[in-house]
Amino acid sequence: MIRIKKDKDDQYSFVVTAKSGNSLLHSVPFASRKDLDDTVKQLRPLVSKTTVFERQTSHNGKFHFTLKNQNGAVIGMSKPYSSEAGMENGITNLRNRITSLDSSEIV
């Protein structure tokens, strides 16, 4: 599911969740709903590309990934994972979730 939120500063963001309800990706803020909607429409073809995922390790040894658009701008970030294998599983789960979404799962 993709949950869309509007914050107190009138910016929009989305969260991609697994069927279990766990968060897979938190987006960056978008200035308008149109920008967010355009980005959400790009997700399915985007996640099939390996170059859009940037894997990172934080200073405390946790692993996370960012998802970038075709221009290299960050769209969102994953939660921290305790292992590299967990992060890779997170990427796989995100890909599977986005490719299996239908329009009723975008709220």
From TrEMBL:
Residues 60-96 form the DUF1508 domain. Pfam families: DUF1508 (PF07411). It comes from the Bacteria. SUPFAM superfamilies: YegP-like (SSF160113). Transmembrane segments: none annotated. PANTHER family: PTHR40606, UPF0339 PROTEIN YEGP. This is UPF0339 protein.
